[in-house]
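Is this the right way to post structure tokens for a design question? Let me know if I should format differently. Anyway, here goes:
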């Protein structure tokens, strides 16, 4: 982004000179223009990541969690319009459009009308756009940024809308919704016709002159416990390389999808490993934010999953182990606990306090317009 800033400052000088302004006026013009350099946004969603899940990183991880680096922290209330206990579709639609909607809705209002998303709006302003997920890229959380359908299970329609959409860089799973479709259409061809470099094998170096699509699993990628490796952090870095090469501001959503799945499976090892992987990715993103002051990182969750608590651990004879704790699941469903919001970078102070999940969209827009 530094190069981008220089280009703006340089054109400001040229304009000032060509208009024959005094040096004091020139200086003011430069300051004013520099201040308006667009803010890049990185939005990270830990699906199902409530405060207990974040806490697990502090008791089961080996290093100090990257969560500790945040100073601007808030809480969000996640309910949908139809159910107090929401799902990822309504949750992500609240983040992407600024409006709460019903459960299972993707980018549509309570009366199923398509609503513009932050990704679409910023694309119109000249931003680059990116989505990274561990699930199928047509799954609820990423889909809510580019698709508008009445039900989250309409994967084939969602895939079609991705091809016709405004996403410059995406990485995740979901090959089957592009290639083995009921309508027989081969969306691999459609992606390439839309100027995508498509890689279905690995996170290769992005083609900076084109858009980039990485479809790396039939459905979802493996979980961390199944040997996924560092995909999430690597995909984030690959996206940053691409956006940086093109010297334009960007909006990128990165989802740690399987914290939620650990909760549904009541699998504490899976949940903890996914939280630690997400935290590791946060570390990579925080390094980028620190090196690029004109960025804002917001990390939050769509809802908590599992009604998790971290409580006492006992040995076989029923005696408490004082220096050990364990994860308890109260349910295999989502819960309605408030979830944490962590912010770092320009505008981070906007995210302090307690607010509704859809306010996060409005806070991001406020940061973009004011910072
Ligand atoms: Zn879930």
């Amino acid at each position: 982004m530094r190069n981008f800033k220089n280009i703006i400052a340089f054109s400001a000088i040229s304009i000032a000179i060509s208009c024959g302004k005094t040096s004091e006026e020139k200086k003011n013009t430069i300051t004013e223009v520099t201040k308006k350099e667009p803010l890049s946004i990185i939005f990270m969603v830990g699906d199902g990541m409530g405060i207990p899940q974040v806490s697990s990183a502090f008791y089961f991880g080996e290093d100090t969690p990257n969560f500790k680096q945040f100073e601007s922290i808030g809480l969000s209330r996640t309910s949908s319009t139809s159910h107090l206990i929401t799902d990822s579709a309504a949750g992500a639609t609240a983040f992407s459009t600024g409006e709460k909607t019903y459960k299972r809705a993707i980018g549509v209002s309570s009366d199923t009308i398509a609503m513009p998303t932050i990704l679409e709006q910023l694309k119109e302003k000249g931003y680059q756009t990116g989505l990274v997920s561990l699930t199928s890229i047509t799954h609820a959380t990423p889909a809510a940024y580019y698709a508008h359908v009445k039900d989250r299970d309409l994967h084939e329609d969602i895939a079609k809308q991705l091809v016709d959409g405004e996403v410059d860089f995406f990485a995740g799973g979901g090959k089957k919704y592009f290639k083995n479709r009921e309508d027989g259409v081969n969306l691999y061809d459609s992606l390439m016709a839309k100027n995508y470099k498509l890689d279905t094998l690995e996170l290769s170096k992005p083609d900076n002159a084109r858009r980039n699509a990485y479809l790396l699993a039939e459905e979802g990628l493996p979980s961390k416990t199944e040997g996924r490796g560092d995909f999430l952090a690597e995909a984030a870095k690959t996206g940053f390389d691409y956006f940086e090469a093109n010297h334009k501001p960007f909006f990128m959503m990165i989802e740690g999808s399987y914290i939620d799945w650990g909760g549904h499976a009541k699998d504490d090892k899976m949940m903890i490993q996914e939280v630690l992987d997400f935290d590791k990715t946060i570390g990579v993103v925080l390094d980028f934010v620190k090196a690029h002051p004109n960025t804002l990182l917001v990390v939050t969750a769509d809802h908590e999953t599992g009604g998790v608590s971290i409580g006492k651990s006992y040995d076989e004879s029923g005696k408490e182990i004082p220096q050990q704790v364990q994860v308890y699941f109260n349910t295999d469903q989502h819960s309605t606990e408030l979830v944490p919001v962590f912010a770092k970078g320009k505008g981070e102070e906007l995210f302090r306090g307690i607010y509704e999940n859809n306010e996060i969209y409005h806070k991001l827009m406020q940061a973009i317009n004011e910072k």
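Format looks fine. Someone answered above. Worth noting: Residues 163 and 194 are 7 Å apart (CA to CA). The radius of gyration is 21 Å.
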